[in-house]
Design brief:
Layout lengths: L12 H21 L3 H25 L5 H21 L5 H27 L12 H28 L10 H25 L3 H23 L7 H23 L2 H24 L4 H5 L23 H10 L2 E6 L1 H6 L2 H13 L3 E6 L9 H8 L7 E3 H4 L8 E5 L8 H4 L18 E5 L20 E4 L3 H14 L1
Parallel strand pairs: 1-2, 1-4, 2-3, 4-5, 5-6
């Protein structure tokens, strides 16, 4: 494991290798524990310790380095991380994850560029000193890193509610993407095999940077808001692949391993998200549900039955089994803590209270799990779709807090619906459904929700936090 700027192997190489191995074990152990809500926090801590070991070891292993720059970087990074951890609201967490993915891509891109700046010869064959592995992975690290950077930037803006429209549509859009991809391949071949001088290598690298950044923007632009959980997971995978490529570039095995772990876990998560939406990855990437379009009948409802917090409190008091379904509206209202308070109050009265979590509820994978965990909702009260879906038919009352598409029965009943076949929470099978929503506006899929018109559905048109606070007050007075 030789650093980018090293001329010869570092002393104590065996010790560094063992430390890298320890960091790798901690990464793998941490990822395994992230698979369950109950152990996720400790898994994150284990991975953080592994990263600390890896960072300190990499710094110690590097012989030629500016310790002043290292100190400045560590201080700035620590301060920024501490501020973000304390100040970023849970509603902004998807945007933060997108930003992290983009920064990871940028880091890999700059590693590739820095390697070229240090190792390309000014005379003779410019790339003669590079191994075959480096000739392949240098353009890959720049390419994937650049696309991840700008793609994550577009995802960040979309998650923030910004409307971004692709300049091309239909077949022309796919044609532009194909041309850019071909140009990237040709530019990579030019840089690795045809460029004979340092200026030519630099020119090829800049062309790769420009085209990859443009392609990253174009690829994410047509993807709709309803598909953002998939995009976040996929961009996370891209950042890992870029890191693995940069690991081959500088000869750091730990970077290869950790990048591969992130890339593989991101791809697995992407597959899980696609399965949860009954969509193929290709269908998502080609521009899918919620791409800034809204069905004409998305707000046309008849027979809506509106109710009040007082009536909902009486229904809650009469019910023996209650399932709460959190959605993005809950996150926007920052109502997770008062939701936990409502659940605790109902449990004091002998009610069975559970929380049904859909894999793509919210704006990123695991959004609702993190939200409720932050509010200290007991882990054993959280149930994934597969575990709880069969219980709705025997449930007295379902309380939906800001969710829409993940409870839309059109996915089960309407073959013409764009979400047909997507696994949903079968809330309409319960005896009574209470939907808390600020308005009749559609969800991110931009389609009508027949659940609003069901005979057993009651609507509460309030902000989630305001509504739940009213429920708590009324329940306590009963």
């Amino acid at each position: 494991m030789i650093s980018l700027l090293q001329d010869e192997p570092a002393p104590n190489q065996a010790l560094y290798t063992y430390l890298y191995l320890a960091a790798t074990v901690l990464f793998i152990w941490g990822i395994k524990r992230l698979g369950k809500v109950k152990t996720a926090r400790s898994g994150n801590q284990l991975a953080a310790v592994g990263m600390l070991i890896a960072t300190v070891t990499a710094i110690a292993e590097t012989q030629k380095v500016s310790w002043t720059l290292i100190a400045v970087g560590l201080i700035l990074g620590t301060l920024i991380g501490a501020v973000l951890a304390r100040r970023v609201a849970m509603t902004a967490m998807p945007e933060l994850v997108a930003a992290f993915n983009g920064l990871g891509g940028a880091a890999s891109m700059f590693v590739g560029l820095a390697f070229l700046a240090v190792n390309v010869r000014s005379e003779g064959n410019a790339t003669a000193g590079m191994t075959m592995s480096q000739l392949v992975t240098v353009p890959l690290s720049i390419l994937i890193g650049g696309a991840t950077l700008t793609g994550s930037g577009v995802a960040y803006l979309k998650l923030s509610g910004k409307k971004i429209v692709h300049p091309f549509s239909g077949a022309s859009r796919h044609g532009v993407h194909a041309v850019l991809a071909i140009l990237l391949v040709l530019s990579g071949l030019w840089m690795s095999t045809l460029a004979e001088s340092a200026p030519q290598v630099a020119m090829a690298a800049m062309v790769i940077v420009a085209i990859s950044c443009l392609l990253g923007v174009f690829l994410v632009m047509p993807i709709g808001g309803a598909d953002m959980p998939v995009v976040v997971a996929l961009l996370n995978s891209y950042s890992g692949l870029a890191a693995a490529a940069s690991g081959f570039v500088i000869g750091n095995l730990l970077l290869v391993v950790s990048g591969a772990l992130v890339g593989a876990s991101g791809l697995i998560l992407t597959q899980i998200m696609c399965k949860a939406m009954n969509r193929s990855l290709g269908n998502v990437l080609l521009g899918g549900i919620g791409d800034d379009s809204v069905a004409k009948d998305a707000r046309d409802y008849t027979g809506i039955k509106e109710t009040s917090p007082e009536e909902v409190a009486m229904l809650l008091d009469a019910a023996s089994s209650i399932i709460i379904v959190p959605g993005y509206g809950l996150a926007v209202a920052q109502a997770q803590h008062v939701t936990r308070e409502l659940g605790q109050e109902l449990e004091k009265r002998g009610k069975q209270v559970r929380y049904a979590i859909h894999p793509v509820a919210g704006r990123m994978p695991g959004h609702m799990n993190v939200l409720l965990a932050e509010a200290d909702v007991p882990y054993d009260r959280l149930f994934e779709l597969e575990r709880i879906n069969g219980d709705f038919v025997n449930t007295d009352l379902v309380l939906i807090l800001g969710a829409n598409d993940v409870v839309n029965p059109a996915a089960r009943e309407d073959k013409t619906s764009p979400i047909y076949g997507m696994p949903i929470l079968d809330v309409d099978y319960a005896r009574t459904v209470v939907m808390v929503k600020r308005s009749l506006s559609p969800g991110y899929a931009g389609i009508k929700n027949p659940l609003f018109e069901k005979d057993n559905t009651l609507m509460v048109f309030l902000d989630a936090k305001e509504a739940i606070q009213a429920f708590v007050t009324e329940v306590k007075e009963l």
